[in-house]
Write a structure and sequence with these properties.
Layout (H helix, E strand, L loop, with lengths): L21 H7 L22 H5 L5 E3 L5 E5 L7 E7 L20 E5 L9 E3 L7 E4 L4 E3 L2 E8 L17 E6 L19 E5 L2 E10 L6 E9 L5 E6 H23 L26 H5 L4 E4 L4 H12 L9 E6 L1 H15 L6 E2 L2 E2 L3 E2 L9 E2 L6 E3 L5 E6 L24 E3 L10 E6 L5 E6 L3 E2 L4 E2 L10 E14 L6 E5 L5
Parallel strand pairs: 1-23, 14-28, 15-21
Antiparallel strand pairs: 2-10, 3-4, 3-9, 4-8, 5-6, 5-9, 6-8, 7-8, 11-27, 12-13, 15-22, 16-17, 18-19, 20-21, 22-28, 23-27, 24-27, 25-26
Length: 499
């Protein structure tokens, strides 16, 4: 939103960074009579803690090979880009009356009004888990539009309904899945979830290119950032910003793969997404996909009775009375809804007090009165019958409006009203854990010209990769997640998200 105090319009850009890029010139320009030393990132999305950072508190299980893994159980600078229009595989623009598009992974085209996605990106529309789109080449400019050739991922051979490809459908970046060997570069960065079960690893990759002269470039306006540990930092070198944005986007790709990944194996054990090497791309199921195999319930009206019924299912004949403490992972809207549900339940009870003061009334200070008071409270825990204790934990990713595009009638993203119960397990036997491959850490490598590598600070390169004065960073990771017993989890989801 522009106003009289805003000197220029905020926007985003992508692709190769060079010194004479107009956006970089704007960032490095000398500002007359600066009121502050730091650029306020009013256009940046809140990059909150991720599922990966949560699971990193617990041990990761390492496998010898990257094959499918099996187990037996008993019991349980981010933005949305609106679609301008789509064109099916026959060259016809998609309308409400069109049938399914992309049947059998036939390529078709998505048109946007700006270049935001890249070759090899996986992107998703409103129905995140149901329809994934893999970009099959570099974007092509056609008039005022940017054209992307895409195919469906996630093992989808039935195609995508036309109503998911109409103008205005919001799309966002998901991840960059590639082959587990001999893969080529994909993606780039932008500035601004007694039977046998199985899963497999996903391999993701990302790259970014900069000009060699950026090795010494400084930002006239330092940029405040917050790292993954919540520490505030100020960066003054352009390459610090590039490195931070690169790591943030790679972290987003990993988190989305762990949380929302969808196996691209068909019912006939085929993989239809083929990478640039000619080898198949493998994608494993993420947390929410694995949880969906067990307990899931949709609701229109939320109540404590609903929660009590569900937790009774998880407790009866399974847990002792002293072991029935459950944490509901939800968004901020869900926490408010939980508070109101308790308030409705206890409203007929005898008036309660907090620290001797009714309804949380406390002393405070105010210039308005010498005996000022404050009042207010929030229920974050509820003691249900049969020893069930219910606690609420707010996860900021549930409130992410970039990925969670469907809004709730009561306000905010519908995903914020979702409640998930995770039984992590014990240190001796974890129920949910990250998976890694032995001797295969995250790989980070560089290509550079003969003069300078801004990523490492090296100059006068003895063994250059090519003659151009530039440098490219590449990063790759193979990762997976395992939910041993999905019946020890439960998802309570607003009916607006039902599919």
């Amino acid at each position: 939103m522009a106003n009289n105090q805003q000197l220029w319009k905020l926007t985003t850009w992508g692709g190769m960074d060079v010194k004479d890029h107009p956006a970089m010139a704007m960032l490095a320009m000398k500002m007359p009579q600066k009121a502050a030393e730091m650029m306020i990132r009013v256009f940046a999305a809140n990059r909150a803690k991720t599922l990966e950072s949560f699971l990193s508190q617990f041990p990761t299980k390492t496998f010898d090979r990257d094959d499918e893994f099996y187990w037996e159980i008993i019991g349980s600078s981010r933005r949305n880009i609106p679609l301008a229009f789509a064109v099916d595989e026959n060259g016809n623009e998609v309308t409400k009356t069109s049938g399914n598009v992309g049947i059998g992974t036939a390529p078709f085209y998505l048109y946007f009004e700006e270049e935001y996605f890249y070759d090899g990106d996986y992107i998703v529309g409103n129905m995140n888990e149901l329809y994934q789109f893999r970009i099959l080449g570099d974007p092509i400019k056609e008039g005022t539009y940017v054209k992307y050739r895409v195919e469906l991922g996630g093992g989808n051979t039935a195609g995508v309904p036309a109503n998911r490809l109409l103008p205005g459908e919001k799309f966002s970046y998901e991840s960059n899945f590639v082959e587990d060997d001999i893969s080529r570069k994909v993606g780039d960065i932008n500035h601004a979830t007694h039977t046998a079960m199985k899963n497999e690893f996903s391999t993701i990759r990302l790259q970014h290119k900069v000009g060699g002269a950026l090795i010494d470039d400084k930002l006239a306006v330092p940029i405040p950032i917050v790292d993954d540990k919540g520490n505030k930092k100020v960066v003054s070198a352009w390459m610090q910003r590039v490195d931070w944005e690169f790591e943030q986007k790679f972290a987003e790709a990993k988190n989305n793969a762990l949380a929302f990944g969808v196996s691209n194996k068909t019912p006939h054990e085929q993989r239809l997404n083929i990478g640039k090497s000619g080898r198949p791309i493998k994608t494993g199921d993420g947390l929410y996909r694995q949880m969906s195999a067990a307990n899931r319930r949709y609701y229109n009206t939320f109540s404590l009775r609903l929660i009590e019924e569900i937790l009774c299912e998880l407790s009866t004949s399974k847990l002792g009375f002293g072991e029935r403490t459950f944490i509901l992972q939800t968004g901020e809207r869900g926490a408010i809804q939980f508070h109101k549900a308790i308030l409705n339940t206890v409203s007929g009870w005898q008036a309660f007090t907090t620290d001797g003061k009714a309804f949380g009334i406390q002393n405070t200070t105010s210039p308005l009165h010498s005996n000022a008071l404050s009042a207010g409270f929030q229920f974050v825990e509820y003691l249900a019958p049969n020893g069930v204790r219910i606690k609420v934990n707010v996860d900021p990713t549930y409130d992410d409006t970039v990925r969670n595009k469907i809004m709730h009638p009561n306000g905010g993203p519908a995903f914020s009203y979702r409640y998930d119960i995770f039984d992590i397990g014990t240190p001796e036997q974890q129920n949910i854990f990250k998976c890694a491959v032995k001797n295969r850490p995250e790989f980070r490598g560089y290509q550079c010209g003969p003069f300078a590598n801004p990523f490492t600070g090296e100059t006068n390169i003895t063994h250059a990769s090519y003659d151009e004065d530039s440098a490219v960073i590449h990063k790759k990771a193979t990762l997976g997640i395992c939910v041993l017993d999905p019946t020890r989890t439960y998802s309570i989801i607003p009916s607006i998200l039902e599919y």
